[in-house]
Specification:
The complex is a heterodimer.
Chain A (H helix, E strand, L loop, with lengths): L4 H6 L13 H24 L14 H15 L1 H8 E2 L12
Chain B lengths: L2 E2 L7 H4 L3 H13 L3 H21 L3 E8 L2 E8 L1 H20 L6 H18 L4 H20 L4 H32 L12 H13 L7 H6 L5 H22 L5 H19 L3 H22 L2 H32 L15 H14 L6 H15 L3 H27 L13 H19 L2 H4 L15 H24 L9 E2 L4 H44 L12 H21 L1
Helix pairs in contact in B: 2-3, 2-5, 3-4, 3-5, 4-5, 4-10, 4-13, 4-17, 5-6, 5-10, 6-7, 6-10, 7-8, 8-10, 10-12, 10-13, 11-12, 11-16, 12-13, 12-15, 12-16, 13-14, 13-15, 13-17, 14-16, 14-17, 15-17, 16-19
The chains are: A mainly alpha, B mainly alpha.
């Protein structure tokens, strides 16, 4: 990370110790930590006895797979939806307030 | 003259509605030009309301006789008690959050709006409910107008029209209900009657049912930074309270709620304005509550009330964090933000706490409230609804849990280095954060306030609940990380995303314009045709009656003589035959 002196001065003193959050190495670490975490939670499902309301809910790792697939599906639907529903910012006439 | 009925047996404070201090302070603020005094009132009034709430005893008080009707202004029972407390807390937090703001209009409307919300919650009859229902609509619109832009004013007018219409439906339904049953009492209502049906639609408008929801995403993001925080607390939660009071166990609400949880997820993914994303998130969370009201079991009603309580605080917190961003940066568009944690680290932390709360991480508030609703749905065997709610749980993690904090405070560094939020905003966010963690960590005190007494209390912290919830959340966060790494997460783009309001904002508007043009043309054609017909008639009259017309001629022309002879001849023959 290349923060010059002027940039560092603009950074809040409390935030300076968290600048590592932006590094590529940290993002890679988070990716693998989440992957291992997910696998560990699925593995824990083999140990912890659960009471399932529905048959599918009792499948090992069901919530993990469902969470991953639901999230992925919702996000990937964004591509066609934006094409279908996206219009220019002035579509309803007049600019938005935040501009 | 309205007469205060004698509610004997309890003290004065126990009879008073907690709405009274807020309403009085609100009307006083409207008249007071002194900033400090107004701010003092904004803090003192909720404290006084809390005192009144603490003094209240279960029962119905504050009866007023008007035109032969007995109106109950203070019904303090399990359901109104918990919603009332949530509204008082929200009003207090809003007061702190808005301390820096110098706006008499906003101060007064925020207090009157909160008072109206409380008045409606404690209303024992439909007429009192209607009065406060409309007051809430009319006072809250100024929080949108206060932004001062043309689009805010237009959105405010649309908001007002829709909410006044909701009030009109409520009043019409109340009157029809009264004619059917002879009482205005606000209790369980039959949605299959005309009166009950109209009231249900009125509640549905305020609860932002699917296809009736667009006022929310239209108006809230256009309100002021503080206005959106205030708005997020009362209107929709009042509707949830009203639904729970009037229509608990009405099965179609299960499906309406389930749809409400799912559809906003897709819109929120592609929305660029983060306050509009939060507005979709309100829809999503309301869906859980509406679904629970539809289930109607004690666990479900308790879940709806508990989740509404938690939602008022964590949604308020998220709106506060985005309000702080708007206050400092001037925009909440994701495309304009990023990297703000460097200069607004405390706002970022509070936003993350709100995000974790709404996502239902263990130790955060929604973990102990939303799970009650899911358990109630599962108990009743609604497996499709259960899967929809699980999908929505992953969805809310996406847009409110990750998108809001990530794109505002991290992601691509926008290079902006605004100052940290003002101290009062930080204080309000800090208290809201503490409440989110407090509720999530020690849910017992919230459970003790729940409306329906149950023999066996709900226990959120079981091994299997923690495990399944963490599976869902960690795997979903991993999906985000995975999609970002693969470069397939849709980038934020400046755009208007069409929703159902296109029907009245574009198609309806175009239809009106088209009708106007057609009417103008039709009027033109009709005018021309009328003019031609009049000219022709004038010509005929001139031909006949003018000095040179036919009637002035002394000698009949040949054709006329022949026709006269023929008709006379025919008449003669007929008369001969007849005789």
């Amino acid at each position: 990370m290349s923060e010059n002196r002027e940039d560092i001065n603009a950074v809040h003193p409390f935030a300076r110790r968290f600048l590592f959050l932006e590094t590529k190495g940290f993002k890679t670490f988070v990716f693998f930590a989440l992957l291992i975490g997910s696998l560990a939670l699925i593995a824990a499902d083999l140990i912890i006895h659960r009471h399932a309301y529905f048959t599918f809910e009792g499948w090992r790792g069901f919530h993990a797979f469902y969470g991953f697939l639901a999230f992925t599906f919702a996000v990937l639907c964004g591509w066609p939806l934006r094409r279908l529903l996206g219009r220019s910012e002035n579509y309803y006439g007049g600019s938005d307030d935040d501009a | 003259m309205p007469e205060l009925a004698s509610d004997t047996g309890v003290g004065f404070w126990a009879m008073l509605s907690p709405a009274v201090p807020l309403l009085l302070a609100g009307f006083l603020c409207a008249a007071l030009p002194y900033h400090q005094v107004r701010k003092g009132l904004m803090l003192l009034a909720p404290v006084a309301a809390l005192f009144v709430w603490l003094s209240a005893e279960l029962g119905s008080y504050g009866s007023i006789e008007v035109a032969g009707l007995t109106l109950t202004t203070m019904r303090f029972d399990g359901l109104s008690r918990i919603f009332g407390l949530a509204f008082v807390i929200a009003a207090f937090l809003n007061g702190i959050y808005a301390l820096h703001e110098r706006s008499r209009l906003s101060d007064a409307s925020a207090l009157i709006y909160a008072g109206a919300g409380l008045g409606a919650v404690f209303a024992g009859d439909l007429i009192t409910l209607f009065v406060f229902w409309e007051l809430a609509a009319m006072s809250s619109v100024f929080l949108i107008f206060a932004r001062g832009t043309t689009s805010a004013v237009n959105a405010g007018l649309r908001y007002l029209a829709i909410h006044v219409a909701s009030g009109a439906l409520l009043l019409a339904g109340a009157v029809i209900h009264f004619r059917a049953v002879g009482s205005f009492e606000f209790g369980a209502l039959d949605p299959n009657t005309l009166g009950g049906g109209l009231i249900l639609i009125a509640f549905g408008v305020k609860a932002a049912f699917p296809l009736l929801h667009n006022w929310l995403q239209d108006a809230y993001p256009k309100a002021t930074a503080t206005g959106a925080v205030v708005l997020s607390a009362f209107t929709t939660k009042l509707a949830i309270y009203a639904l729970a009071r009037g229509f608990a166990g009405y099965e179609p609400l299960i499906w309406i709620g389930a749809v409400m949880t799912v559809f906003p997820v897709f819109f929120a993914v592609i929305e660029n304005d983060l306050r509009r994303v939060l507005s979709y998130s309100i829809n999503n969370q309301l869906g859980f509550m509406v679904c629970a009201v539809g289930i109607g079991t004690p666990l479900a009603i308790n879940g709806a009330a508990a989740h509404a309580f938690a939602d008022i605080i964590f949604k308020g917190l998220l709106f506060m964090s985005m309000g702080a961003v708007l206050h400092r940066v001037g925009t909440t568009r994701a495309t304009e933000l990023g990297g703000l944690f460097k200069s607004m680290p405390f706002t970022a932390i509070f936003c993350i706490i709100g995000a974790m709360s709404i996502s239902a991480f263990p130790l955060f508030s929604a973990f102990v409230t939303k799970s009650m609703i899911l358990a109630a749905v599962a108990h009743e065997g609604h497996w499709i609804v259960f899967l929809m709610l699980l999908f929505a749980s992953a969805g809310v993690l996406e847009h409110a849990g990750i998108k809001i904090p990530y794109f505002a405070f991290f992601a691509h560094d926008s290079g902006r280095r605004p100052k940290e939020a003002p101290w009062n905003m930080l204080l309000a966010m800090g208290i809201a954060s503490a409440l989110c963690i407090g509720i999530g960590t020690f849910p017992g005190w919230l459970y003790s306030l729940l409306p329906v007494s149950v023999a066996e209390h709900y226990h959120p912290y079981t091994g299997e609940h923690i495990l399944t919830q963490m599976q869902l959340l960690v795997a979903a966060v991993f999906a985000f990380s995975f999609l970002m790494r693969m470069g397939v997460y849709p980038p934020e783009k400046r755009a208007t995303i069409l929703d159902f309001d296109w029907v009245y904002r574009r198609a309806g508007h175009s239809l009106l314009v088209w009708t106007d043009v057609i009417l103008q043309r039709l009027t033109g054609h009709l005018g021309a045709a009328m003019s031609r017909a009049l000219n022709r008639a004038d010509g005929y009259l001139h031909t006949v009656f003018s000095p040179s017309g036919a009637l002035r001629r002394t000698v009949p022309n040949g054709a006329m003589a022949i026709w006269t002879a023929l008709i006379l001849g025919a008449a003669l023959i007929l008369s001969l035959l007849a005789s």
